[in-house]
Amino acid sequence: GAVVSQHPSWVICKSGTSVKIECRSLDFQATTMFWYRQFPKQSLMLMATSNEGSKATYEQGVEKDKFLINHASLTLSTLTVTSAHPEDSSFYICSAREGANTGDEQFFGPGTRLTVL
Amino acid sequence: QKEVEQDPGPLSVPEGAIVSLNCTYSNSAFQYFMWYRQYSRKGPELLMYTYSSGNKEDGRFTAQVDKSSKYISLFIRDSQPSDSATYLCAMRVSSASKIIFGSGTRLSIRP
Fold first, then answer.
1. CA B40 to CA B30: how far, in whole Å?
2. Between the CA atoms of A114, B85, B51 and A25, what dihedral angle is there, to the nearest 10 degrees?
3. Closest residue to B99, CB basis, from A6, A106, A110
4. Is the Cβ pair B102, A43 closer than 8 Å?
5. What is the pLDDT of residues B69-93, one digit of tens each?
6. pLDDT confidence bin for B52, thresholds 50/70/90
7. Any CB–CB contact under 8 A between B96 and chain A?
8. In which residue ranges of chain A is pLDDT below 70?
């Protein structure tokens, strides 16, 4: 099956610094990538949807200037958490979809655990 | 009210038992229904994918959708310790890409 990787798998940073998380589709070209956030014992919440070569679409309540998303190629999307604060500590998961149809399956990455001190 | 409600558990059953996991939802426009399995500190893995109402079986797993009751179920037969994980129900409207997830049910299979 399709494989999506994330790097790093975990990161600890100081408050006020920026952190970049990479999401790669390893064996397919992802026209669309999604970024989710999951707090402990809670559901995955969609943060933003990004299509290759265009600006990301952010969900209501998600600050686009704080969570910068770049989808520069069909196999790579990055999420940068700028000026991170302890409340940004969470599990960040990306997913990727190969086709343009909404019915195509999304494949999820293994997630990145961010801890902001 | 959340769009998708799921009992968080934890649910603990002995090995070999039949497990029943359920979700209810409020948006009658949902057409696609999924079940994901998520191991600790890992991303979700798609288990079952169903369109509209009905049953779907895949090995030891059976998914049921009752749109009239806005209720979906996942049954696991002959449960194994390796089935211990968090199970997330998810659904979406046919014309949209956004997936709405339940909060997940933590399942533990006792050897």
1. 28
2. 40
3. A106
4. yes
5. 999 999 999 999 999 999 999 998 8
6. confident
7. yes
8. 1, 99-104
